[in-house]
Amino acid sequence: MDHILVGLANPWPLPQQAKHNLGSLVLESLAEELDLDWEWWWSCFGWVAHARVNELTLILFIPGTFYNLSGFAVRRACVVLGLESHQLVLLHDDIDLDRFCWATRDGGSDGGNRGVRSVFQSLDPGVRRLRIGVGRPASRDPKTVACHVLAPVDQELLERWQAAARNGELLEILGLRGPPTDNRSSTRGRLS
C-alpha cells in the first residue's frame, strides 16, 4: 500500500527553522537520506518526492500553503495522487509534548493546532499523525503560543530528528520499517 507523509510548515518568508516547520524539516532529512529529489507540483500546490522503502511506495509531501491552511493542499495531493486519507501520515509540531517526545495517533483533537484542524476539516478527522514534541510555551495565551512555535527550533532537537530520519528510527516510529503491519494503535515514545 502507498503512503503519503505530509510535513506541515510555513512557506518563505517566515523562518524556515521555526518549531512550526519541524514536520517538514524531518521530511526533508528523510528525503536527503533516501537521496530523493523534490518536485513542485502545481496540481497539488506543494513539493512532492517519491521513494520505495521495504516494498512500500512512500510519497513525501510538503504543502506550499501557510501552515494554518494546509488542508487545501493536502486534500489536493490525495486527490491528484489517488490516495485515501487512511494512507496519510501527518507530521507536525506539538506543544503538549516535551522536547524529544513523540506520539502517533489516529485523529483525536486538533489540540488547538490550526494546521491539523485545517487537514481534519478538508479530509477526515481520523487522519494518522506523528506529533513531534517542541515543549510548552510559558502560557496558552495565543500570542505566547504563536511566538513559541514561530521561534527557531533548538538545534539539538532538530539534529536528533535528523538523525532519526537517517538511522531508520523515524520509519520505525511510523511503522514503515520491518514487516508490514495494519496495527494503527496510538503509540508514544522518546527519541533514542
UniProtKB/TrEMBL annotation:
Transmembrane segments: none annotated. InterPro entries: Pept_tRNA_hydro, Pept_tRNA_hydro_sf. It comes from the Eukaryota. Pfam families: Pept_tRNA_hydro. Gene3D superfamilies: Peptidyl-tRNA hydrolase (3.40.50.1470). Keywords: Hydrolase, RNA-binding, tRNA-binding. GO terms for molecular function: peptidyl-tRNA hydrolase activity; tRNA binding. PANTHER family: PEPTIDYL-TRNA HYDROLASE (PTHR17224). This is Pth protein. The gene is pth.
